[in-house]
Fold this sequence. Notes:
Blueprint: E1 3-6, H1 11-20, E2 27-30, H2 46-61, E3 65-74, H3 95-105, E4 115-125, E5 131-142, E6 158-160, E7 165-166, H4 172-178, H5 180-200, H6 204-209
Parallel strand pairs: 1-2, 1-3
Antiparallel strand pairs: 3-4, 4-5, 5-6, 6-7
Helix pairs in contact: 4-5
Bound molecules: ligand CZF and magnesium ion.
Amino acid sequence: xxxxxxxxxxxxxxxxxxxxxxxxxxxxxxxxxxxxxxxxxxxxxxxxxxxxxxxxxxxxxxxxxxxxxxxxxxxxxxxxxxxxxxxxxxxxxxxxxxxxxxxxxxxxxxxxxxxxxxxxxxxxxxxxxxxxxxxxxxxxxxxxxxxxxxxxxxxxxxxxxxxxxxxxxxxxxxxxxxxxxxxxxxxxxxxxxxxxxxxxxxxxxxxxxxxx
Length: 212
Ligand SMILES: O=c1[nH]c(=O)c2ncn([C@@H]3O[C@H](COP(=O)(O)OP(=O)(O)OP(=O)(O)O)[C@@H](O)[C@H]3O)c2[nH]1
Ligand SMILES: [Mg+2]
């Protein structure tokens, strides 16, 4: 079977991955296809968490796994929420609560001191034990209020100077042109293609044609 499992339950990430991987001749599964798989993200760094997710999923599914551990580092908060970005406002918190907490913590902080960056660590784990890790970053500023309805997570409060708007005001194509995830994926694609070529050999022609 020509497939890889994207080791995420985050539908926002998955939507972005599907577009980014559309030029690679492989079926994309996700943890939505394996609802029984639970992964405890107890690493201290993005790299550790990405490794934990990819290793567990390749082990349980026997299929090559691509994981993403990502988060927001805010300069005025000393790099927080960092690896705790998904659960910043508490274990059951959703995007709205997380954004509220972030804006509250930055109350009174002027525009020029609201610098932040998104970090993405991608980990690709193969059934033969090989592991590849790549990183991507996106610099920006935290706004004073949410703007836009697209994307997910903190997108409505993350202003990107090179786009002149928040990530939630950007189309999926615009976000994928600059995002931390897309930048990490750009580097990861060579490993993904190498894997597809070696395992699925007959897809070679299509891969050569894809121009990557
Ligand atoms: O506005 C955002 N735009 C992005 O592009 C983005 N990428 C990551 N994030 C936030 O960082 C957490 C990562 O946590 P995370 O890597 O553990 O993911 P997750 O728990 O949501 O899913 P999974 O992949 O672990 O299943 C996520 O929940 C989001 O809140 C983003 N927010
Ligand atoms: Mg997570």
